[in-house]
Amino acid sequence: GPEVYRISFVFPNNDKYDGECIRTPDGALERHGDGVHTTPNGITYTGNWKNDKMNGFGRLEHPSGAVYEGEFKDNMFHGLGTYSFPNGAKYIGNFNENKLEGEGEFIDTQGLEWSGTFHYTAAPGLKLKLEM
C-alpha cells in the first residue's frame, strides 16, 4: 500500500490536522489513518480517517459540551454511536447519515432511560426502561 506519513498541517482557515496521511497518485496529501483535527472555534475530532474524511471510529467534541463517540462515514455520524448533549442527556444507538435512526436508548437529564426505535430524531413508542 501507499506510504503513510505523519504530518502537522494548518489549513488556510486555521483548522489544524495532526496525524497520518498518504499521498494520492496525483501527489496530493490526504488524511488517512489516525489523526486529530481541530478548528479555531473549538471543535475537535480524534479518530480514523480515510479518503480525507472522517471514516471509521472517532470522537467529535464541540465547544458547547456536545460529544459524539462512535462510527463515522464520510464526515457523518453513521453506525453505532453515543451522542452526549450539552445538558447531560445522552443517546446511545444507531445513526444514519447524522440522524438518529434505528434501535436506541435515550437517557434524559434526570437519568431516566428510554428505549425504542428512533427515526430521524422522532421516537414513536418510546418506553421508559425501569431497572427492577
UniProtKB/TrEMBL annotation:
The keyword Ribonucleoprotein does not apply. Keywords: Repeat. InterPro entries: MORN, MORN_repeat_protein. Pfam families: MORN. This is MORN repeat-containing protein 2. It comes from Mauremys mutica. The lineage of its organism: Eukaryota, Metazoa, Chordata, Craniata, Vertebrata.
